[in-house]
């Protein structure tokens, strides 16, 4: 059994990870941690999250600098479900021992530190760790993940967008004279558990935000290999992301070209489900799946590809679990889907 710790366990993605780890056949949850002065320190997972009411044995413990070294030396895997700054500050100590570290924040996803500082608002000073970090888009990084000690788990919108776009870019089917246009809607859990006016029930209505400047634009571009126009929207639902991606294809590309392409790229990837109609958020909410569907207009040369995921699962926790499975020598889907494990 692998010994596992979750830091940021009281948050949405941390609690989801706790749930996944407790149900995992080869993992033992050893620590659930929060920040040093957390208002939730001393509470049980059951007290903080009603859906985990059966987990009163796990008590949220405050993290301190002594504990960082102990975790690094004793754990097999550590999940960081913490704000970008906290992940950035702790990675060096946490990755100095035997533990493999899986960071759900954006702190280690962008190799270009200038682009990072512009979008995250602070300078990257953990450059050795940044060099070592593997971008954990699990379907594309299985080999690199097997030997990774630091994994930057992709952002939620980049996961949905890249799973739709990478097959097209990698096959040379995109006409990059027109940037792919990604319009994506996220449920409010994407903004985390802390109360804020913009995510309060009365305030949320379908609205674009971060227009032409969201930090996920450079992340998508860096890991796709071409520039995009990305517009996120906040929707008045709890969980899920629907990304609708419009692309210009190389002249002569047909519907059957895309059908064969997606079928071959994702043939051995059970987490990616190729649907026969455009996907719905409800079909993937609370699951580890990414559902894809596409349509080509051969006459105009445009195609629309839609990608649906649960932001807390494939957009964060279950993708982190895919990465951990691979890094610990297990099958990618262990503890995630029955029938493939
Ligand atoms: N929600 C989502 O859909 C996605 C989130 N992410 C990323 O995952 C990370 C976690 O997100 P999410 O679960 O939504 O966030 P939440 O706000 O729901 O939870 C954050 C957790 O981190 C803890 N925390 C906050 N500040 C600190 C600190 N300084 N030191 C230690 N712990 C701290 C919080 O507890 P406390 O403050 O009480 O200590 C809480 O347990 C973020 O980096 C986010 O950007 C990535 C993809 C999708
Ligand atoms: C709805 C909502 O607010 N979504 C978040 C993105 C989700 C997330 O946390 O992604 P990172 O790990 O890259 O921070 C946002 O737009 O900032």
Helix content: 25-40%
* Distinct small molecules bound, one entry per kind: NADPH dihydro-nicotinamide-adenine-dinucleotide phosphate, N-acetyl-L-glutamyl 5-phosphate
Biggest sheet features: 7 strands, parallel
Compute the average pLDDT: 97
Keywords: Amino-acid biosynthesis, Arginine biosynthesis, Cytoplasm, NADP, Oxidoreductase
EC number: 1.2.1.38
Family: Belongs to the NAGSA dehydrogenase family. Type 1 subfamily.
Subcellular location: Cytoplasm
Brief descriptors of the model:
single chain, 341 residues, alpha/beta, Rossmann fold, 2 domains, seven-stranded mixed beta sheet, globular, binds NADPH dihydro-nicotinamide-adenine-dinucleotide phosphate, binds N-acetyl-L-glutamyl 5-phosphate
Describe the protein.
By secondary structure, this protein is α/β, with parallel strands linked by helices. The protein has 2 domains: 2-132, NAD(P)-binding Rossmann-like Domain (Rossmann fold), CATH 3.40.50; 156-311, Dihydrodipicolinate Reductase, domain 2, CATH 3.30.360.10. 32% of the residues lie in helices and 21% in strands. It has helices at 12-22, 45-48, 65-74, 84-94, 113-120, 127-132, 142-146, 156-170, 216-224, 255-265, 281-284, 313-327, and strands spanning 2-7, 27-34, 61-62, 77-80, 100-103, 134-135, 150-152, 181-186, 207-208, 229-234, 241-248, 272-274, 290-297, 302-309. The site of N-acetyl-L-glutamyl 5-phosphate (X2W) has 10 residues, from strand 10. InterPro entries: AGPR (IPR050085), AGPR_AS (IPR023013), AGPR_dimerisation_dom (IPR058924), AGPR_type-1 (IPR000706), NAD(P)-bd_dom_sf (IPR036291), Semialdehyde_DH_NAD-bd (IPR000534).
